[in-house]
Specification:
The structure is a single chain. The chain is about 40% helix and about 15% strand. The chain has two domains: about 15-255, Aspartate Aminotransferase, domain 2, CATH 3.40.640.10; about 255-345, Aspartate Aminotransferase, domain 1. The strands form two sheets. Strands 1-7-6-5-4-2-3 form a seven-stranded mixed β-sheet, with helices on both faces. A four-stranded antiparallel β-sheet has the order 8-9-11-10. With about 350 residues, it is of the alpha/beta class. The structure holds pyridoxal-5'-phosphate. Pyridoxal-5'-phosphate binds near residues 141, 145, 172 and 174.
């Protein structure tokens, strides 16, 4: 059996709906650079999804979506506040700072990957003089890097906080569909109704080959974003292949059902993991990730048996991810092997 399946949701392949949409788009010569009908269809499908007249841009990956979105919200003397575990901080090789010409990232803490509003207030108010990089953006991740989901009430609170301190609100939604599936809320309730200005909306981890959408809920903030994308090498000439999968996933409903499947698999996987008494959950399982603490010998035994999953340095924590492609029978097979390995120790 394939022992890579829990390593990351981007280990998964292309889902049938995305594949079909790419095949459908693959007919004849059409206009390039986003002037085609697939791109306008995809933008309109996203406007329907969010029930608002948003501005949409397609880029190749999440790092580009995040860093270009942040750059569009700041001047170089500003700062962006985010959680210390945010992808923007830990996994983008400084792209946010680079594309904004040096905007500083200010880190705040908070339980289970969610920013603490008090920590944000502290970061904004502890200095207001000209020597401190002026806080301008608050960036949150939904679902978070630690597999949790901000509730509607938490988002409302964050939206108010941002308004109170005149901060733009950016959401890293690499796993936004998982948050929609987890909460059962309308996408608008998790975004613009809560004060989100810009969303980096992930497609790759949810069944697409490549691509993320940058969604601006306030038109004035999207000004010249097309130039920013082009300069950063993020304007696809054959845009229809980035856009068509969005049409396929939105029209079929797979966008949310893929994510719901991944979330359900994570619940099943956590039950298998917790069937071993020495394994402990580190964060609540609210989306498609399971974070657990395993005894070191069991962790080693799983790795020796060929299971691939990420561990966070020195802490003994392991992350298991599920995707649209995870199969329930593979979760049970993993559980059986896990229990056998644990019994042998
Ligand atoms: C995967 C991921 C991204 C996007 O990463 P890329 O590799 O640049 O596509 C962004 N944010 C979060 C939270 C992610 O998990």
């Amino acid at each position: 059996m394939n022992k890579n399946i829990f390593a990351s949701d981007n280990y998964s392949g292309i889902c049938p709906e995305a594949w079909q949409a790419m095949a459908d788009a693959n007919s004849g010569c059409v206009k390039s650079y986003g002037e085609d009908s697939w791109t306008s269809k995809a933008c309109n499908a996203l406007r329907d999804f969010f029930e608002t007249d948003c501005q949409v841009f397609f880029v190749f990956n999440g790092t580009a979506a995040n860093s270009l979105a942040l750059a569009s919200l700041c001047q170089s003397y500003h700062s962006v506040i985010c959680h210390e575990m945010a992808h923007v901080e830990t996994d983008e090789c400084g792209a946010g700072e680079f594309f904004s010409n040096g905007t500083k990232i200010l880190l705040v803490s908070g339980q289970d990957g969610k920013i603490s509003p008090a920590a944000v207030t502290h970061a904004v108010t502890r200095r207001t003089d000209i020597h401190y990089p002026k806080p301008k953006v608050l960036s949150i991740t939904q679902a978070t890097e630690l597999g949790t989901v901000y509730s509607q009430a938490e988002l409302q609170r964050i939206g108010e906080l941002a308004a109170e301190h005149d901060l733009r609100l950016h959401m890293d939604g690499a796993r936004f569909a998982n948050a929609v599936a987890a909460t059962g809320l309308a996408p608008k309730e998790l975004t613009w109704r809560a004060g989100v200005d810009v969303l980096s909306f992930g497609g790759t981890k949810n069944g697409m080959a490549v691509g993320e959408a940058v969604v601006f809920f306030r038109h004035e903030l999207a000004r010249e974003f097309d130039y920013r994308c082009k300069q950063a090498g993020q304007l696809a000439s054959k845009m229809r292949y980035l856009a068509a999968p969005w049409v396929g996933l939105l029209e079929s409903g797979a966008l949310v059902s893929n994510a719901a499947h991944a979330n359900r698999c994570a619940q099943l996987l956590s039950e298998e993991l917790l069937s071993v008494p020495s394994i402990r959950l580190i964060h609540p399982v609210q989306a498609n990730a399971v974070f657990v603490q395993l005894p070191e010998p069991l962790l080693q035994a799983l790795h020796d048996a060929g299971w691939h999953f990420y561990t966070f340095i020195g802490s003994g924590h392991a992350r298991f991810m599920c995707s649209w492609q995870t199969r329930e029978e593979d979760i049970s097979a993993f559980g059986s092997e896990l229990r056998a390995l644990a019994a042998d120790l």
